[in-house]
Amino acid sequence: MAATVRVIGAGRAGRSFAKAIDDLVDWDVIDMRRRGVAIDDAADVDLVLIATPDTVVADVAAAIRPGRAVVAHVAGSLGLDVLAPHDRRAALHPLMSLPDAEIGAERLTGGWFAVAGDPMVADLAAALGGRTFEIANDDRALYHAAAAAASNHLVALLGHAQRLGASAGVPADALLALALGSAENAATLGPSAALTGPAARGDEATLVAHREAIGRRAPRELAAYEAMLAEARRLAAMEGEA
To answer: Please, what is the Cα angle at 48 between 50 and 78, to 5 degrees?
Structure first.
């Protein structure tokens, strides 16, 4: 018999999970509900998956009458305490970006998941072909900060690079290709060994030229450049100590 799932939240995460789970043989999404819509108890399903914004997870969980179901959320920064008063609690955070239901469902299949609590969510991740790791309650915020750095900060950095490039007529696609190649190098060699450029080789004259050019042509980008230069130097120092 297939395990039954109710998804609460019809945003990108909720729709991505619903589509991905619907493609599984031994799991069945019986319905997907928007937050704010009346919620029945958790007695008629095996898993209630709360895929709402983090700020309302506790309110949604409190509105669900406890039953036999595992009640889980997909928030990265929240622990299991927000799922009171339910006895069977869990967290299943997809360590990936879910921009829409189609792409999201593809990424959920075979992706990485941070899990906690009832093992049913690890079973669901395994059914999706995913890989899991456990994050303790006290470490959830730090874990989520790492995820934000790997995803959101990377996107912000690409925006910074493209704005600098635009001032000199550099195609955005050319910079994106460079970034993708560097990411592949970091995946293969590790960040420290993959670092190249003037910070890695201690070319201070070039770094001074960078700052002067940015100060003249794109002064609003100078603070971001200085911050990332400091991190590049820190990484270079770590490689030198290895």
So the answer is: 40
Please state the pTM of the whole predicted model. Answer: 0.86
Residue 56 φ then ψ, to 5°: -115, 5
pLDDT in the model for residue 31: 86
pLDDT in tens, 22-46: 999 899 998 888 765 556 667 789 9
Q: Is 85 exposed, middle or buried (0-12, 13-18, 19+ CB in 10 A)?
A: exposed
Residue 161, domain extent: 142-241
Domain of 51, CATH number, reads: 3.40.50.720
Neighbours of 181 (CB within 10 A): 11
Which is nearest to 143 in space by CA: 73, 61, 75? 75
pLDDT value of residue 35: 67
* Residue 200's CATH number: 1.10.1040
At 34 the pLDDT is 77
**CA–CA gap between residue 53 and residue 208 (Å, rounded):** 44
Q: What are phi and psi of 5, to 5 degrees?
A: -130, 135
Q: Is the pLDDT confidence value at 48 over 70?
A: yes
Residues in the chain: 242
**Cα–Cα distance, 156 to 162 (Å, whole number):** 10
Q: Please compute, for residue 206, the number of CA atoms within 13 A of its CA located in the half-sphere on the CB side.
A: 8
Question: Which H helix or E strand runs over 116?
Answer: strand 112-117
